[in-house]
Amino acid sequence: MRGWLAYLFLALSCAAQGQLDSLTWEATAWGQHRSNTLSNELVGLLIHGGHIDRTLLESAQAAQAGEMGAFGYASGVAVTWRSLRPWKETESRLCGSIQFKTLGDIRWTPELFDLVFTGNAGHLGRWDVLDGSRFRAGTWIQAAIGLEGANRNRIELGLVYRLRSTDARIRNGHLYVSEGLDYLSGYVRGHMGWAEGGSWGLAINAEWHFLREEAPFAFHLRVQNLGFTVAPKWTELQVDTLVETTGLTFSGPGLSVESLTESEGASEVITTLNERYRFGLMPFRIDASFEYPLGPRSGWDVQAQIGDWMPVPRAVTGYRRAIGKRWQAGVQLVAGGWGRLRPAAWARWRKPGEYAWMLFVEDPFGWGSNAAYGRGITLRYQNL
């Protein structure tokens, strides 16, 4: 709250000095989820409950194809602004932004997926690897202020308040059950942590645009949320557990809790629960984009993104075209991030000199098909 009051005080002070009496701004709202394994129908059943048909699980297993499964989601609202008046006697202008964002990332091995949804009956006599499975999520608010120069190049310093933060990871893990059901070996080394209360921090946002009349192209580089937060009370459970049992007694196929707890064997369980300060990096993102005109009213675009906890970089390529005096639209192909190759489309309408609206839809077919592997939408308003 102190950060928000400080930001408001600074903005009002600048306005009183006549620096913010003329602003241009834009507001953006977005939401998306994407997976390389889980269809929209399966995600809906996992969230809202319901019967999961075996064909859905088999389809997910086929889509995962022995690779790490991934599911990610992101949503938020952001407002950015810039002053139309120079800062004092320089060519720079005041600029700033306010952002609310939620981000989540889940990853799992094929073996973990099978164990969770189908049990271990079909896994007897084989080693199930759990290494790298992970869940993390965060929600934060950021208020930033900075300076903008020529070509709208800008840099901002933001105060971050992280409302929620969770991180769980299996660094190393396995499960083995013999075909004779008389030997089990299970091992997990990892952690699960969460912040009790909020976390404060700082972050940098920056943009650099290469725009030259003599150059036949444009290049843009953006950095968002490059910073850190400090959690005053971070609770973390460290696990380093090895369980080995022999001579188990079972009733029916597979393992049961009763047979495991009543058996005699060797086990080593090490867990540590501690509370401490935690310094953590923000899930930053870097965007690089390239625009090349194909004519006076059309062009070709390429974009690459890394960060935001995405397991692989996200790549975008597309074609855009101006339609009349007010419309512009484009079609794209998107790959990477949390999912595989999918289409995207966008349209922009503007009233010259006043305002503009833009709508971007990732995987339009995902909005009407339960068999798709995600959907996404972005809506933007610009005060020109």
Notable features of this structure?
single chain, 384 residues, mainly beta, Porin, 2 domains, 17-stranded antiparallel sheet, 5 helices, 17 strands, 13% helix
Structure description:
- The protein has 5 helices and 17 strands.
- With 384 residues, the chain is mainly β.
- The protein has 2 domains: 161 residues, Porin (Beta Barrel); 168 residues.
- It has a 17-stranded antiparallel β-sheet that branches.
- Strand 14 and strand 15 form a beta hairpin.
- The two termini are 31 Å apart.
Question: How confident is the prediction overall: mean pLDDT?
Answer: 87
Low-confidence runs: 15-20, 250-258
Q: Gap between N and C termini, in Å?
A: 31 Å
Rg from Cα: 26 Å
Annotation field: number of helices: 5
User: In oligomeric terms, what are we looking at?
Assistant: single chain
> Which outline best applies?
globular
User: Helix and strand string, N-terminal first?
Assistant: HEHHEEHEEEEEEHEEEEEEEE
Helical/strand content category: mainly beta
Helix content: 10-25%
Strands, count: 17
Question: How is the biggest beta sheet arranged?
Answer: 17 strands, antiparallel
Number of individual domains: 2
In percent terms, what proportion of residues is strand?
over 45%
Write the layout of secondary structure elements.
Elements: H1 2-16, E1 23-35, H2 40-48, H3 54-64, E2 69-83, E3 93-108, H4 110-118, E4 127-129, E5 134-148, E6 154-177, E7 183-195, E8 199-211, E9 218-246, H5 257-261, E10 265-281, E11 285-295, E12 298-307, E13 312-323, E14 327-337, E15 339-351, E16 355-362, E17 374-383
Antiparallel strand pairs: 1-2, 1-17, 2-3, 3-5, 4-6, 5-6, 6-7, 6-8, 7-9, 8-9, 9-10, 9-11, 11-12, 12-13, 13-14, 14-15, 15-16, 16-17
